[in-house]
Amino acid sequence: MENYRLRYAPSPTGYLHIGNTRTALMDYLFAKHYQGEFILRIEDTDLERNVDDAISSQFSNLMWLGIVPDEAIVEANSPISQTKYDQLVAKYGEYQQSKKFSHYEQLAHDLVNNNKAYHCFCTPQELELDREVQIAQGNPAPIYNQKCRVLSSEQVQANLDAKKPYSIRFKVLQKKEYAIDDLVRGRVSFDSQNIGDFVILKTNKIATYNFAVVVDDHDMKISHVVRGEEHISNTPRQLMIYEAFGWAVPVFAHLTLIVDENHKKLSKRSGNALFFIEQYRTQGYLPQALFNYIALLGWSPKGEQEILSKAELIAQFDSQRFSKSPSTFDLKKLQWMNSVYMKKISEVEYLTFIKPFIDKNKFPWEEKDVDLVWLDAVLLLFKNEIEYGEQINNHLGLFFNQTKFRREDLAEIKTFGDFSQLIDILEDQLNSLDTWKVESIQELIKKVGIEAEKKGKALFMPIRLFTTKSLHGPSLAQSLYLLGKAQVMENIRIVKEQNHD
After folding, report:
1. pTM of the model
2. What is the pLDDT of residue 272?
3. Rounded to 5 degrees, what are φ and ψ at 170?
4. CA 407, CA 338: separation in Å to the nearest integer?
């Protein structure tokens, strides 16, 4: 194929979610693997349902993920300049359907003039009545009764002269098979007997989806159409339009469903799984981790490796490796993958990334003029622990003196034997410790263990509870160092009082 041109064409009726991100990502990888173009086109003919900031949000989140279009409209978050866009429009037409209404209307009338479409003057009431009759007669999938298809040219002209509202319907050829060789599903055929004459231009002169999308794909020389399986039912109508105009048909790939853990189609109502990309961004997932994980929903590389960079995914992309089975969206696996990427980034990158996720109401480090070197050291303790950004707030209480002592923790460490002598020795050793460094604290803990004849959990668990008020946390010596001697001694006092109550 001379040039690979693939498009992601969202409707601005909602925000970027896992499903349409997967579509955009597959189009992007496909195009980039073959040094082609990835195109972002806006299908905004459903004017009543369009959401004001949806286009901006789509661009913002796609760019954040690293799915950067080569061609798109000019928008605040898009990489396209006005000069470049003007050049693209001159070659491929507008990239926003609401700017092409007259173009679609002209082409619809061209089909009428070529006897491949016709004016339909049926009112909504007439269409609904006929639909109800067909259902009552046992037809679960009513189709248009072709009432206006058989109107004479004189009747049509009379209705036009009377300025009667009309739509334009496509003339479906009877008893004809249409087929595609789908990259995912193989040969898929459709029988025209099951498809009624469908509207291509509504009474308000706005093109329907199936008509506009074919015109756009032709205008933009789209080579491959990769989209979700819900679009399979649209395919025969689109094939008919391609045939009517004598246009080349792109290669199709209908991706399988993404399902939740209950094997139901992933949606915003799928349990507690987050659905929109903005939600993951807000919670503190890394864009490269999301890019990697979503790329593996319905597609797989060769071999067992799952952690792949954008460059590696582009290099390994192969349309023959699309999955034929539904893909399960596993939030736990995404969290694991994000933690892997969290470990891989540098300390500087991690600190820059993590600080905005600190809950400033709980931990007002900026207001309290917290020492930044100290804060960085605290945050780095958890670089290899957390799965996503917001989780940092589950760990900072210890260092902001917000950890609450739990009596049940005291009961738990009593299972390791008597620890009263151990804590007395610890307190004495800490009081006499002059150099407050991680290394000296580590040595102190060893000495305490030898003197108290304790080791393993019987040594570390009581020390951790008394010094930090918690049984769990990062490196003990580092934690005590960052808490500071005064706070450690105060924690011991508090826990000892609780133990004596």
Report:
1. 0.91
2. 58
3. -85, 140
4. 35
